[in-house]
Design brief:
By secondary structure, this protein is mainly α. 64% of the residues lie in helices and 4% in strands. The chain is built from 25 helices and seven strands. The strands form three sheets. Strands 4-6-5 form a three-stranded mixed β-sheet, with helices on both faces. Strands 1-2 form a two-stranded antiparallel ribbon. The chain has a two-stranded parallel ribbon with strand order 3-7. Helix 2 runs antiparallel to helix 3 and helix 10 packs across helix 19. 38% of the residues are buried. The structure holds zinc ion. Zinc ion binds next to helix 16.
Length: 596
Amino acid sequence: MADVKLQPERWSLKELFPSPEGPELDQASHQLDGMLSEFERCRERLRPDLGEDEFVQILRQYELAVRKIARIVNYGALLFYEDTQNQKSQSLFAQGRQTAAEFENRTLFFKLWWKNLADEPAKRLMAAAGEERYWLEVLRLQKPYTLTEPEEKVINLKDVNGHQALVALYETITSRYSYTIEIDGEVKQLTEEELFVHVRSPKPELRKAAYQELHRVYQQDAPILGQIYQSIARDWGSEQIDLRGFSSPLAVRNLANNVPDEVVDTLLAVCRENVSIFHRFFKLKAKWIGMDRLGRYDLYAPVVETDRTYAFQESVDIVLDSFSRFDPRIAKLARRVFDENHIDGELRKGKRGGAFCATVEPALTPWVLQSFTGKPDDVATMAHEFGHAIHSMLAEHHSALTQESSLPLAETASTFAEMLVVDQLLATDPDPELQRDLLFRQMDHAYASITRQAYFAIFEREAHQRVKDGGSVDDLTEVYFNNLKEQFADSVDLSEDFRNEWLRVGHFFFAPFYVYAYSFGQLLVFALYQQYKAEGEPFKPRYLEILAAGGSDSPVRILDRAGINVRSAEFWRGGFQVLEEALERLTSLEVTAGVG
Ligand SMILES: [Zn+2]
């Protein structure tokens, strides 16, 4: 690996299937069909006096079918993400969603039987279930909110062309967008990722132009995208609250995460209570870039003009090296992703935006997608996505039902990995501009992943209520703008074009209330990272134990075992204390205004 310089390229999906055209995909679908027919035959054996061995065997059948369908569905999805404009991939992606809906329908009887089983036999069978115990426990959490089998079937079928179709429509519309911007006298056509690089440009006029062009394009479709959002929020309300009986739109996500409502309320309240840290940060930042006050366009401005870029190979080396210093086993796991060519780092038009890590099933190394442009930020993103991959691989001894952690812990390994890499860069690269850039970046990032996300969730809470009350798209835009005003107070000049910013937050569309998991995960990691610095070696096994638990237990129990109490506001405030210290450190630096 040391001899051949890695370049960002397209990933290989061959371990899933050799090609979209070959017979293998159809064969797998037939095999899946056979497995499901076999599974359906266990239906008449499902009685309260079912033997433990028989129950475990049924669970095993189900888990194998989940592995099979995960390969089929993820293949279509990953093909689609590598080229969203490819028609074959579009149809495989759609077929995959259809297959998943059918799978749900054909196996629903088992989950419903399990959910409705009386407590005594459920307890007896759960005790025998071993690896799948927590998965079974989670299914029963939904018991009070579960409808009859025919009703659940109708919802599953209608979702394919309902919520899921709306999300696909949103993604198709927005990933087709192309942006026109003048850079150094040259007019350029850019993708959203390419455009977004300029939001962090050292040139104020370029940052402004990038944001204005971004908002101009979204603004044109605001009535359509806003209507899509309203439909999604109405669907969420009518299904989850009216039909299933959840107490609030947010409570749906909390139960799915198995985090008590009061823990999430505490998290959001503490984020709101500590927003002034960022007011002070933004004011400090204004001094550094020689402005009286920041404009919203300047939020992610680099304080020091660094043109430092990283070759792909260099970035890989930095990431693996910092992992290795923490624990060589971690680096070894990350290396597997490269060795198996499971990373798509290339810049291509039509490729899905952003970055992600996809875990398919425990027997397969996860796949990572990012659009690598060589900025220091891309090095951190690489570490972030590899953190996800490591989390999955540390938990690959679990089953397909319990490998992946639920949302609140899903960002733990990724954010921790990012902090390791940033600390390593701070420790090893003496370039003062890079040092300051990285410190500011850490604060910028903490804002974007903690407070901004918490305010997103606060917006969603209000937006869902407004939609329920018959609010218009304009009303939602007003709610969003007021949310921004509270968030920035007098520290930042808000411009009107940010009213429509909410339309480009994909999470609001495809996973309502997903966003607070970022705040949860990030604040949690600050607290954990502080312990790591204080304890050193003894911290490592506790931390790795959290990761290796995967999704085999509830987040709160996993954290309890590591001595973390997320019910306490004090715990969350501790995360902000780390940020206070970072801000103090920044404040003590000599300001050399105007370098930006
Ligand atoms: Zn992540």
